[in-house]
């Protein structure tokens, strides 16, 4: 095996080991860390080994190879999964990612975290996740449609509005959901808009979904600040915020936070960042990003500098593992809102929690997206539609309720919000397991 691999050039060799040997993959690390958190929390709750195994093992793991015809007439095979982790609280719920480096362990880790996230949010859902190993940028639009339809056809017999409800994730869009839903409906021979969420509004998508994750994160931050103001935690009237990542989540978080009086002094994307002590001009940054491919104007800063800024609130909203062993000792912000999935490594989380940083965990902070997906599902099942204002109000109520349960548990047990969120979720899931 190794000899054969020597034929690869060094990049491929590295890539093979980094991403395709599951023993070394980031996906494996992610799975181990999700399972370790569940085990540690469940042991603390004195759950027996069998119950812990039931919380860890996925109920179903569908693995398949999808063959599609490429534009040049050749056939190409793509590896894919739909992993259904736990359905105690309701149908499996979770996105489908298209990524060249996704592995089974990563999909399983994300399915596991969806079970926790849905339970923390108080949704009647279990957790699931799907993935295809593909770089969608290398496919033509019609190839992408063929692959999306092939995926929907392959999972059609194991999904449904009361069984498993997929949604978009990394590199999948409302348009891809519309192809998948169309294919699924052809197979089952009837309309079933509630089987997929994150659809275009014209096909039954919900108003307010685009901004939902950023908006939900802001509600979580506001809930936290109003609690902290009742303690002796020192907070200025207009807290300063640094946001890493200027995509869907980071942009809307920064925009909505600015609208309600937070001073967003720094933002960044994968290329560069901007610092402005009077508050970043977000419209200008967005315009620059669209026109020049970079958010930069005025005083630019690197991503590392952004993470290490002396601000009140740090919002990592880009990718996983951005705060890690290399930079954790330099983090100055007292409050961290985990808007990306897993932006702090296990080591960084443990270090910063010990330093008394207040960390709003990803399973709570970024659940606004799945909450509005739930509202889309309810609308699809009922066949009537709410205004954007109604959707936003419901999101606010649900985020505040989720935060309250987490905070209460954290105070009651004197444990950090992350551990408390896992405990709230595990209590809810196990109470529905017979
Ligand atoms: P996106 O692709 O729209 O944006 C990602 C942003 O991160 C881009 O601006 C990109 O330039 C930036 N980025 C990438 N690498 C970076 C780096 N090294 N340093 C700084 N910035 C970098 O993605 P998104 O939908 O905004 O998702 C961001 C995170 O939030 C992901 O972890 C995702 O899983 C999580 N999340 C998203 C949603 C949602 O509804 N979109 C819901 C829950 C969780």
Summarize the structure.
This protein has helices at residues 2-5, 10-20, 26-44, 49-56, 104-120, 141-155, 174-188, 212-228, 248-259, 282-292, 303-307, 346-354, 362-365, 368-382, 388-413, 417-431; strands at residues 60-69, 75-86, 92-99, 126-133, 164-168, 240-244, 263-268, 273-275, 300-301, 313-316, 335-337, 358-360. The protein is an alpha/beta fold.
What does this structure look like?
This protein is an alpha/beta fold and 434 residues long. Helices cover 47% and strands 16% of the residues. The chain is built from 16 helices and twelve strands. The strands form two sheets. Strands 9-8-7-6-10-11-12 form a seven-stranded mixed sheet, with helices on both faces. Nicotinamide-adenine-dinucleotide is lined by residues 213, 244-250, 268-270, 303, 317-319, 339-341, 366, 369.
Please give a handful of descriptors for the protein shown.
434 residues, alpha/beta, seven-stranded mixed beta sheet, five-stranded mixed beta sheet, 12 strands, 16% strand, globular, disordered N terminus, binds nicotinamide-adenine-dinucleotide
Architecture blueprint of SSEs:
Layout: H1 2-5, H2 10-20, H3 26-44, H4 49-56, E1 60-69, E2 75-86, E3 92-99, H5 104-120, E4 126-133, H6 141-155, E5 164-168, H7 174-188, H8 212-228, E6 240-244, H9 248-259, E7 263-268, E8 273-275, H10 282-292, E9 300-301, H11 303-307, E10 313-316, E11 335-337, H12 346-354, E12 358-360, H13 362-365, H14 368-382, H15 388-413, H16 417-431
Helix pairs in contact: 3-4, 3-5, 3-16, 5-16, 6-7, 8-9, 8-14, 8-15, 14-15, 15-16
This protein binds nicotinamide-adenine-dinucleotide.
Nicotinamide-adenine-dinucleotide binds next to helix 9.
């Amino acid at each position: 095996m190794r000899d054969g691999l020597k034929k690869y050039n060094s990049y491929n060799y590295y890539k093979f080991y980094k991403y395709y040997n599951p023993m070394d993959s980031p996906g494996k690390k992610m799975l181990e860390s999700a399972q370790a958190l569940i085990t540690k929390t469940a042991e603390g709750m004195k759950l027996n080994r069998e119950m812990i195994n039931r919380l860890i093992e996925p109920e179903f793991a569908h693995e398949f190879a999808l063959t599609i015809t490429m534009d040049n007439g050749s056939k190409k095979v793509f590896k894919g999964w739909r992993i259904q982790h736990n359905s105690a609280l309701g149908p499996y719920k979770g996105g489908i990612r298209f990524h060249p480096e996704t592995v089974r362990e990563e999909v399983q880790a994300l399915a596991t975290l969806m079970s926790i996230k849905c339970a923390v949010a108080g949704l009647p859902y279990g957790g699931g996740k799907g993935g295809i190993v593909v770089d969608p940028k290398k496919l033509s639009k019609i190839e992408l449609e063929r692959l999306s339809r092939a995926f929907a056809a392959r999972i059609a017999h194991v999904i449904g509005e009361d069984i498993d409800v997929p949604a978009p994730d990394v590199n999948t869009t409302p348009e891809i959901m519309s192809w998948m839903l169309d294919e699924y409906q052809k197979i089952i021979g009837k309309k079933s808009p509630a089987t997929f969420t994150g659809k275009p509004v014209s096909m039954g998508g919900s108003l307010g979904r685009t901004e939902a994750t950023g908006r939900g994160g802001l509600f979580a931050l506001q809930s936290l600040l109003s609690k902290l103001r009742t303690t002796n935690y020192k907070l200025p009237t207009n807290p300063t915020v640094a946001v890493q990542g200027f995509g869907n989540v980071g942009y809307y978080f920064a925009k909505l936070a600015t609208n309600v009086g937070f001073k967003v002094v720094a933002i960044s994307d994968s290329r560069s960042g901007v610092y402005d002590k009077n508050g970043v001009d977000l419209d200008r940054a967005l315009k620059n990003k669209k026109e020049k491919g970079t958010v930069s104007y005025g005083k630019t800063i690197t991503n590392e500098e952004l993470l290490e800024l002396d601000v009140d609130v740090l919002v990592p909203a880009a990718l996983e593992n951005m705060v890690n062993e290399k930079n954790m000792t330099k983090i100055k912000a007292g409050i961290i809102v985990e808007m990306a999935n897993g932006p702090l490594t296990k080591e960084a989380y443990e270090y910063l929690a010990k330093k008394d940083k207040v960390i709003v965990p990803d399973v709570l902070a970024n659940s606004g997206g799945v909450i509005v997906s739930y509202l889309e599902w309810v609308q699809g099942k009922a066949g009537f539609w709410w205004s954007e204002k109604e959707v936003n109000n419901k999101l606010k109520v649900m985020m505040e309720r989720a935060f309250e349960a987490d905070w209460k548990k954290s105070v009651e047990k004197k444990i950090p919000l992350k551990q408390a969120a896992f405990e709230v979720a595990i209590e809810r899931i196990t109470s529905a397991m017979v």
